[in-house]
Amino acid sequence: MDLKKGDIAPDFSAEINGGKTIKLSDYKGKNLVLYFYPKDNTSGCTKEACEFRDNMDELANNNVEVLGVSPDSITSHEKFIEKFNLNFNLVSDPDNSISTAYGAYGEKSMYGRKYMGIIRSTFLINKEGVIEDVWYKVRVNGHVDAVKKSISGL
Question: Is the pTM of this model over 0.85?
Fold first, then answer.
């Protein structure tokens, strides 16, 4: 099920780096970029994370926080954060329950082989927990600029 602008963002509770548990409702009163990516330390995922990192000052100035979500373990996330000096939290979704709720988990195809996996997706969620913008099947190049453009409309 794909989510769209105007939908209430599905709530979740999950573990983030540092062993803390967060809920989507913890971000009420803030705008949130929630992005789903397949795997820590892969080229596209690293590039996307570093682009969010490099734009955090501008995002924070617009009362925006960023959360990255992947099926990787907390240990993997912590190493990824340290290696690339990421300045936002990463959510561990090992059972893909969060990505499924957001329509970011489904059938993919590579070299003619079909398999289930994370569909690179981003959601801009406003202060009231309503989805303001959605990007499915994200291409990394230029994506953060598209997100920033959408944020400027908040």
Answer: yes
